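Write out the 3D structure for:
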Amino acid sequence: MTGKLLVTGASGQLGAAVLHHLIDSYKVPASTIVAGSRDVAKLSDLASRGVETREVDFNDAGTLASAFAGVDRVIIISTDALDGEGTRLRQHLAAVAAAKSAGVGRIFYTSMPNPAESKVTFAPDHLKTEEAIKTSGLAYTIFRNGWYMENLFMALPAALASGQWYSSAGTGKIAHIARDDIARAIAAGVAAPASDSVTYTLTGPVAYTTDEIAAMAAKATGKPLTVVHLNDEQLAQGMVGAGVPAPYIPTFVSFDANTREGKISMVTSDAATLSGAQPMSLEAFLDASKAALLG
């Protein structure tokens, strides 16, 4: 890899993990890396290793020209602005425009599986960002990141505590993948020699239904767990009763609808092909996460 590489969202969990693998797993010189964050103070550990740090705020166009200056490649880590007001897409489009204006040679972007058909409420943000990247004329590598195994922490601890997991996913399947396996694959793709524009879908090795995941979680923790199958409306009503903030309920329900309709059931070998390492199995992840699952 030649030239400067900018990693946005460098203080976030995925961005930090990608940087770790770039430097430690793939021996990319720290001096060739720029770590970007809205809060540069959070990047002190990287700075101590010789990584240049810059303020990068997709909400502040004034920071972007200097943030992208002299950059040959940029990893745009998708943001977590899910306010329903289009903020996330505006942020992404600002980053793509800044990359083009700065003459960046290649954009790497973290997207989601099947954004054109996904039922997830924020899928259009990813689809339109991908389209903007493709029409920019810049070379690109798009990583469509599968559902993190860590996302199960949003549901499983409470489900295990009660013995019931409420779901409208039906018999739909997901091939969860650990965040670190995604980060390793992204770092491998970035560290590899330049290639034609390409899109990868990063998933775990096996797709499971909610019932199958519940059985594995029960085995790992020794706690009984039954899936209570609901429709989307019932699931939403239950979330209201549980005190989930109203703005988030449609998105949470859309995750299950997306699974039920088979929009995220794909299994690929892209992660293993990129990194040369087999992703962690879901069973191994749950076994290793017993303490977190039991709260």
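The two ends are 43 Å apart (CA to CA).
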